[in-house]
Amino acid sequence: MHKAIVIGAGLAGSEAAWQLAQRGIQVDLHEMKPVKLTPAHHTHDFAELCCSNSLRGAEICTAPGLLKEELRRSGSLILACADATRVEAGGALAVDRHAFAAMVTEKVKGHANITVHEGEVTSIPEEGHVIVATGPLTSDALFDSIREKLGAHEYLHFYDAAAPIVSFESVDMDNAYFASRYDKGTADYINCPMDREQYDAFWEALCEAEQAPVHGFEDKKVFEGCMPVEVMGRRGHDTLLYGPLKPVGLRDPRTGKDPYAVVQLRRDNAAGSLYNLVGFQTHLRFPEQKRVFSMIPALKNAEFVRYGVMHRNTFMDSPRLLDHHFRLKAEPRIRFAGQMTGVEGYIESAASGFEAGVNLARELKGQELIEFSDLTAIGALGLYVSNEANTKFQPMNINFGIIQPLGYRVKGKREKNTQIALRALEHLDGLMAAVQEGKE
C-alpha cells in the first residue's frame, strides 16, 4: 500500500493530502493545531484564512481568475469549498472564512485515506515521501531542522501584515456608500470617501503613528504585495491615492463625482456583519490603529473587532533548492508546497499543494509525472519558483507575466489576457485525461 506524509494542514497541505487520498494513497497528515497555534491563527480549523477573505479576481481575464478555473477543472478541494462558501464581492471570489475552513476540515478529516495527527512536527522524517507545507510561519524547531537539511542555502525573510476588521453596524453609512469600481458586478464594497482636507489630516497622522515593535523589521524587507499601509503612506503624500485609497471609478452618489480619496471595506463573512479595510495591512500599535483609522469619516465610531497584526513570514531560496515539481533537488523524496516555496497568495499556495499531491501520487504508483507547462497558470508558478536564473528571488503572485505569451499581437489587454486564458484551459483539458487516469 502506497503511503505519504504531509506536514501542515493549511491550504497547500490540505490540498496536497486530498489529491493524494483521492488517488488511493494513504496519507498521514500532521497539523500542530490545536496543540500549538501561530500568531496569525485564531481557530483550530484547517486552511484558515488569516489576512483576508478575498481569493482575488474571479474572471479568467485575470491571472488569479485563470488559476482558480484551472484548479476548479482539476478537482481542487480548496476551490470546491471556496465556491460552496462564496460571499458577494463584485468581480472577486470571497468566502465566509469560518465556513470555508470548517468545510475543508470536515472533508479532509472525513476522508478514509487520511489519518490526521495533531501536534508539532519538529523535524523532517528520515524515511518516506514527504510534503512539507507548514507555511510562512513554520515553527522554530522545524525551521531549524529544514535549514539544517538544506545545508549552505539560507532561508529568506519578509514580513506580512493583516488588515483590521470592523463591524458593519458601527460604520456610519451617512458618510459611506455601496459601490464596486466602475459599477462592475454587484455593489458589494462599502466606500468611505474623504475630501482633500480630511485625507491630508489622515495621511499626516498615519505617517507619524507609533508602530508595534517588530524584531528586525525594515521597510526594505516588506513584500510589496502585502505592504503595511503606514509604510506605503511614508513613501509620499499621493502614494495611497494610487493604491488602496484610489478613488477612480467610485463615484459618490451624493456629489456625482469621484471623491479625493476612498477607503474600501470588503465583506468578511456571509452574514455581512463584518468588513475588513481593503489594503490596510498594518503593524501599528492597537491604540494607534483606533485613533488614526477613526479619522476616516465613515469609521469615526467604528468598532474594531480585530486589529491588524504584524508577523514574520519565511520563504525558501527555491530556485536553488527545488525543481518545478516542488521536489527538493538534493533529496527528491521531499517536496515543499505553499508560501514557504515563494508562491504568494492563498490560491497560489493551493495550486502548489495540488501539483505536489497529484504528482507524488503518480510517482508512488509508477506513473509518469504530469508536466504542467507555463502555458498554464499552475505550471507557470512551479517554473517561476524553480528558475535558477532568478538570482534575486522574491515571492510572486500569479500573473500573466510568468505565463507563456501568445506570440502574436492582440489589441486590448483584456482581450489578450482572455486569449491566453482560453489557450491555458484548452491545454489543461488535454492534460486532464492523465490526471483522471491517475485516480484509478
Describe the structure.
The chain is of the alpha/beta class. It folds into two domains: 3-155 and 316-437, FAD/NAD(P)-binding domain (3-Layer(bba) Sandwich); 162-312, Elongation Factor Tu (Ef-tu), domain 3 (Beta Barrel), CATH 2.40.30. It is 32% helix and 16% strand. It contains twelve helices and 16 strands. The protein has helices at 11-22, 63-73, 77-84, 97-110, 140-150, 196-208, 229-234, 286-293, 318-321, 346-364, 377-385, 413-437; strands at 3-7, 26-31, 54-57, 86-87, 92-95, 114-118, 130-132, 156-162, 165-167, 177-179, 189-194, 261-267, 274-277, 304-306, 309-315, 334-336. It has a six-stranded antiparallel sheet with strand order 10-11-12-13-9-14. A five-stranded parallel sheet has the order 6-2-1-7-16, with helices on one face. Strands 3-5-4 form a three-stranded antiparallel sheet. A hairpin with a 6-residue loop joins strand 12 (261-267) and strand 13. The radius of gyration is 22 Å and the shape is globular.
